Amino acid sequence: MRVIKEYDERKKEILDTAERLFRIKGYDKCTIMDIIKEVGIAKGTFYHYFKSKEEVLDAIVLRYVDIVRNNAEEILLIENINPVEKLMRAFMAMQVTNQIDKDLLDNMHRVENALLHQKALNQLVTTMTPILVKVIEEGIEEKVWSCKYPLEYMQIFLVASLTLTDEGIFELDSDSQMSVMAAMISMLEKMLNVPEDCFMKLFIENFGKM
């Protein structure tokens, strides 16, 4: 007898199962029928929730991106910290290695899961840009810094930092990673026209001396 489940519960079951199968088989090799059989549902039931395998992939990625976004949005609500510290905390909230399941993160770097990896990076940039822009605009209003292109600068910064520090794209040792991060912080200071060590001091406090 088929078990009837609530909509959200069934949807979560499909996503959990698909995520596990994507890890084991790789996204490209895993089929919709694999997911259907593993969950134990009818084909029509699957399509009631998702139109395609790619839509399932999008939903899996969004679950993790939502965690990062929620953490960053909570930081925006803190009233007793200045824009400099708020911006640094927002960046630290984006450390996906602390948010995404380690097995999934490792498997994102496999060739067969390149699309999953690409979508995760794309969603992070799309989701985090408006949040960071709010902090930049807050700093402009409080005359902490000046920035001519808040949106474009944050897009450039996010794409560069997420790509260069992604172990699945560039295999850097720990010293090289720290150097790249320090260079990104230096670039951010120039983007916002702040003193050279404005963000670097907070960076060193959180990640250690360069």
UniProtKB/TrEMBL annotation:
GO terms for molecular function: DNA binding. InterPro entries: DNA-bd_HTH_TetR-type_CS, Homeodomain-like_sf, HTH-type_Tx_Regulator, HTH_TetR, TetR/AcrR_C. The keyword Transmembrane does not apply. Keywords: DNA-binding. Residues 8-68 form the HTH tetR-type domain. Residues 31-50 bind DNA. Pfam families: TetR_C_39 (PF21303), TetR_N (PF00440). It comes from the Bacteria. The keyword RNA-binding does not apply. Gene3D superfamilies: Tetracycline Repressor, domain 2. This is Transcriptional regulator, TetR family. It comes from Alkaliphilus oremlandii (strain OhILAs).
